[in-house]
Amino acid sequence: MITEFGHFALILAFLVACVQAVAPLVGAHTNRYGLMALAAPAATAQVTLLAASFAALTYAFVTSDFTVRLVVLNSHSLKPMLYKISGVWGNHEGSMLLWVLILALFGAFAAWFGNNLPQKLKARVLAVQGLLGVAFLAFILFTSNPFLRMEIPPFDGQDLNPLLQDPGLAFHPPFLYLGYVGLSMSFSFAVAALIEGRIDAAWARWVRPWTLAAWMFLTIGIALGSWWAYYELGWGGFWFWDPVENASFMPWLFAAALLHSAIVVEKRESLKSWTILLAILAFGYSLLGTFIVRSGVITSVHAFANDPERGVFILAIFVLFVGGALTLFAARATAMEARGVFSFVSRESALVANNILLAVSSFVVFIGTIWPLIAELFFNRKLSVGEPFFNAAFTPFMIVLGLLLPIGAMIPWKRGQIFLTIAKLKWAFVLAVALAGLVWTMQTGKSLQGPIGLFLGAWLVFGALVDLVSRLGRTRDFSRLLRLPRADWGKFFAHSGLGITMFGVAGLMAWDQEDIRVVPIGGSWDMAPYSFTLDAVENVRGPNYLSTMATVSINKDGEPYATVYPEKRNYPVAKMPTTEAAIDYHPMVDLYVVIGDRQDDGGWAVRTYIKPLANWIWAGAIIMGIGGLISLTDRRYRLAAGARKNAVPQGTPAE
Amino acid sequence: MRFVFAVIGMICLSSTLWAVQPDEILADSALEARAREISKDLRCLVCQNESIDDSNASLARDLRLLVRERLVEGDSNDEVKAFIVARYGEFALLKPTKTGANAVLWWSGPFLAIIAVFTAGLYIRRRSKSFEPPVDALSDAEKERLNDILSKD
User: Is A13 a domain residue?
Assistant: First the structure.
């Protein structure tokens, strides 16, 4: 009954979305305020209905209702509760439902908190958001209905893919979707502005928080996924340049570019049409990502439900929205007249450089991702594009970005003097070079990867620090530091976080060590300064799996240091084994132990890695996310919120 | 979105084999290091986007052993890769060659960067030479709306 109720709510949401897509648009065009006013209640109704629908599906999963097909395919009565809930979005249909729920939620937020938006702009934004809802709800209802019943319900389900039964992955998709779908707001604002034919500083101020929020969620979502790959897949890789990873990385790069170009629109009223284009492309890449993941056109380690029919549907949505928006852009872009004047050496130019680097590097990821498809279709060559290509083609842009960032972040608006800015940064530069030099002399081998990474990381962090302190003015009154605008702090954290991640990536790739061997029970092996002993290997029973669990004790310089328990699990229902690496986390280094198979001589295959700076990668990402969050709470946005609160009670008596 | 699904699971993960196993490793550590380096550039053909160095599939193991065999016989790194490509096609290379149409793959990024820098240079030149127009007065519609708002209170 509850399932049918959810199904019905979903259909109603589709109808409401149709109204939301059409009525306000017509209203805005014909100056009928009644039709425009329909947008907000429609957005509220849509999100309420979708929340009810999602709740109904969650209920089916939580109660293990095996009359529902989706539950049978992705759940099992013995599965822990956390994974029963995360199982709702651990599959194609459920994740699409979460996708539209978040889409509607963002639309509703614009409806609820958008009282100070011009009425027509608000109506058009909500209409575009509604149109997106129509497209995706139709997709769900016609190709991926999560509420289908089984004719003959089985006694138990087929279990969720064991690799997905993991806390890191339980929260990874919701964050990613918040990011992907958050970019739909920037898209709706861009399309609304194109229909309206004007954009100004106020528009940019409206778009920025949405983009910032989307970027922040994407950052955290990608970091969670990368961390999951690191500890779950069992060989300690953190990024594979897999098509599906790239699908989330491209919108991230575009969101970062959009974030920065919107600053130029807001402060200087330049780069307007470029910012609109970025907003369209950023969401376009989100849609493309959805297409890649769900169509099976490009083979991936992370292949989702591969169904050509769904692929064609999503491709149609992609062509309709991105093509439509780009056509509109071509027709209207010239109306976006730039106003600000600036010279070659200026913050504006620096932000243009930022945009070029981010957009081009994103393009490199894009072409690397789709090249196997193009080569096969047009050149009849079956080839692969993998990690070595991306490392070679993508990294140089990031290095240039890292080199320019601290300088660009400090150049004054309109007209600056490059040497004045560089002079301010000289200590940051000297310190970064000194650190890199020190490490270069200390390390064995002549690889430059680690020292360059350290230089970039230190240069970014110290540069961000110099930038923050320079905001105090000549007085250097450090007590004012906490009273600086939060946007300044956000910038400091975001830029430092990027530096920390860059250093982590370079350090891990340059300095990790590996040891592969067969060890008898009681045997020891050394990886200076650590020595490892395989104490025991036992069979253990988990809630829905069987495990072979080893006990490995670690000594450092002869002293007991840690004990870890690497596992090999077998999930009998899903018929899949997983490796559970044991990781001893430390700030500077991770000790990573994986147990393999029993060998013929009775010993066990064991892999040991020493992974320096691994945690820095995710710490940097989290710091970037915190930077975004701090920036979101900046006074400008809160002030707007406060003004709104005052405005509401004044509005009521006037009725 | 790292949903690893059945296909890959069956092929690569469900085998009880393992990426580089203890018995594969060559005694000569210099050769072994070269073998690892080459392995990272070769694709496990039955897997999806995994190098034979990372893959657990049995084919990947065969390829790893083949790479080591060639190295022991004195092949250079490039000769080993050429040997694999001759048998399995360029699909086996994770780092595509720069020949033929692949030039587009390799050079379109740098090419685009140059175009972008050039275009941006022209744009900035235009911006630096124009003059900043005064802030526009309110449009008629805006004036009307302002009057509306002011007369409400």
Answer: yes
Any domain includes A31: yes
ipTM, two decimals, is 0.82
Q: Which residues of A touch B89 (CB under 8 A)?
A: 382
Which of A298, A360, A382, A646 would best serve as a mutation to test chain B binding (most B beta carbons within 10 A)? A360
**Share of residues in chain B with pLDDT > 70 (%):** 81
d(CA A473, CA A484) in angstroms, rounded, equals: 11
CATH number of the domain located at residue range(s) B6-92 in this protein: 1.10.8.640
Range(s) for CATH 1.10.8.640 in chain B?
6-92
Of the partner residues B2, B3, B13, the one whose CB lies closest to the CB of residue A577: B13
Q: Of A109, A141, A165, which residue sits at a domain end?
A: A165
Give residue-wise pLDDT tens across range A230-244: 887 767 788 888 888
Q: Are A163 and A232 in contact (CB under 8 A)?
A: yes
Instruction: For residue B25, give the nearest of A591, A515, A568 by alpha carbon.
Output: A515
Residue A131 in any domain: the answer is yes
DSSP designation for B93: B
B76 touches A at CB < 8 Å: no
Compute φ and ψ for B63, nearest 5 degrees. -65, -40
Q: Which residues of A touch B133 (CB under 8 A)?
A: 339
Could you tell me the residue range of the domain that residue A38 belongs to? 1-165
Kindly tell me if the per-residue pLDDT of A651 is higher than 50.
no
Cβ A352–B120 below 8 Å, yes or no?
yes
Structural domains counted in chain A:
2
Return the HEC string of A115-149: CCCCHHHHHHHHHHHHHHHHHHHHHHHHHCCCCCE
Listed residue (A243, A621, A253) closest to A401, CA to CA: A253
Minimal-distance CA residue of chain B relative to A274: B120
Single-letter amino acid, residue A334: T
| DSSP secondary structure code for residue A333 in this structure | G
* Nearest Cα to Cα of residue B15 among B61, B53, B66: B61
DSSP letter, residue A471: T
As beta bridge partners, residue A437 has none
Contacting residues for A526 by C-beta, under 8 A, at least 6 apart:
A532
A98: in domain: yes
**Alpha-carbon span B84 to B39, nearest angstrom:** 11
pLDDT digits (tens, 9 = 90+) for A152-208: 888 888 877 777 777 877 888 889 889 989 999 999 999 999 998 878 888 888 888
- Contact of A281 with A261, CB cutoff 8 Å: no
Q: How many helices (H) and strands (E) would you count in chain A?
A: 22, 10
Domain C-terminal end among A165, A190, A208: A165
